[in-house]
Amino acid sequence: MNFENILVEKNNGTARITINRPNKLNALNKATIKELNVAFGALEDNKSVKSIIITGSGDKAFVAGADISEFAHFSVDEGGELSRLGQTILFDYIENLSTPVIAAINGFALGGGLELAMACHFRIASDNAKMGLPEVSLGVIPGYGGTQRLPQLVGKGKAMELIMTAGMIAAEEAKDWGLVNHVTTQEELLPLAEKLASKINRNSSLAIGAAIRAVNANFEDGVNGFDTEIEEFGECFGTKDFKEGTTAFLEKRKPNFPGN
User: Fold this and answer.
1) Which of these is catalytic: 44, 115, 194, 232?
2) Which of 22, 189, 202, 247 has the most CB atoms less than 10 A away?
3) Domain that holds residue 211
């Protein structure tokens, strides 16, 4: 896959997507969002890819925000469509992938950058990272899911404070809030992401996809997450992965999951 704004690498079952616009601090523009959609779709369809890491190029920014120059003069309808399309083809899309996605936040994750990280299944950060949703300082609100996912992750009160002050929090505070799972040095960020990915890769991809759907169901309006869990749990019993996993356990050996 050849792209202008992102780099894609694959190694030992893990794919790494790097947003590569360092002169713009990796800001998201329309072209980058479309490229990410294509890349994630191709990796989701690739059965050899068991996990995905997304990060930013350089050591300053994961994604410093959206490219404001693209929408500064939009109308009401254009603004609504910008949000709707972005959520559909990227942010909601990532959240509902069956392949787990780890955000490796290597610097500023602001606005659309933090929204991108929050759409991933979990996040780790380097100790120089800073996170925030500064949109109200521009006279607008987060439009790529920020008002929904931030309260889910850190609670309503903290989310309200961060959004209304347009402030930033450092990596350790983000960890205390539950926004990121781990904080490490810049040098150790990607090795940690790869270590976590390798642990994921040992397990059943089918079961992980089922677990993602069950967890996400708890946050969907009108959906009973417990019912989804029951259904997904039952479906696992019809898979070769379940047979292999239980047989390997009883035979006291490591499983070799076929992925079906």
Assistant:
1) 115
2) 189
3) 205-250
